[in-house]
Amino acid sequence: MSTSAAVATAVTFVWMGMVLAISFVEAPLKFQAPGVTVPIGLGIGRLVFRVLNLVEGLFALVLLIAGVTHMPGTSVMVAAASAVGALLVQLTVVRPHLSRRSDVVLAGGDAPYSLAHHWYIALEVLKIAALLVTGSLLLAE
User: Which segments cross the bilayer (predicted)?
Assistant: First the structure.
């Protein structure tokens, strides 16, 4: 395995682990902690997801660079592009809706129900599946 492929594989699995830990463990549990109100939970969530998305962007860039230097097979490229695409949709389409809704709640208002969280979660599941396939295919090369 080349250095580029090894880096891409490691980044893929670390990225997947971060998404699993933050989106499916930290995010729902923070609202169950004693004394955490919805506004406090939203404030923490905004900060955590802002940093997660920044790190995800860096990981996507590393995968792009590794893909250019390593030139993996088409299936690896499609799987990695699916993960990056899911991230881009989250950042450009879904997250702005979530931000507007949380702005209302943080300002003390009552925000209407939104399907944006469901879309975000669905994209997280897609991203995890794409990263698992990407990493597995990289290991098999």
Answer: 47-69, 76-98, 118-140
Residue in 139, 116, 120, 96 with CA at minimum distance from that of residue 22: 120
* Closest to 15 measured CA to CA, from 95, 140, 133, 141: 133
Distance CA 79, CA 62 (A): 15
Hey, what are 115's tokens? 């399907």
Judged on CB neighbours under 10 Å (0-12, 13-18, 19+), 28 is exposed
DSSP 94: I
Contacts of residue 124, Cβ cutoff 8 Å, sequence gap at least 6: 19, 23, 24, 86, 90
In whole angstroms, what is the distance from residue 13 CA to residue 96 CA?
Answer: 27
- Domain total for the chain? 1
Q: Which residue range forms the structural domain that includes residue 86?
A: 3-140
- Span 89-119, pLDDT tens digits: 999 999 999 999 888 888 888 878 789 999 9
Length of the chain measured in residues:
141
pTM for the complete prediction?
A: 0.91
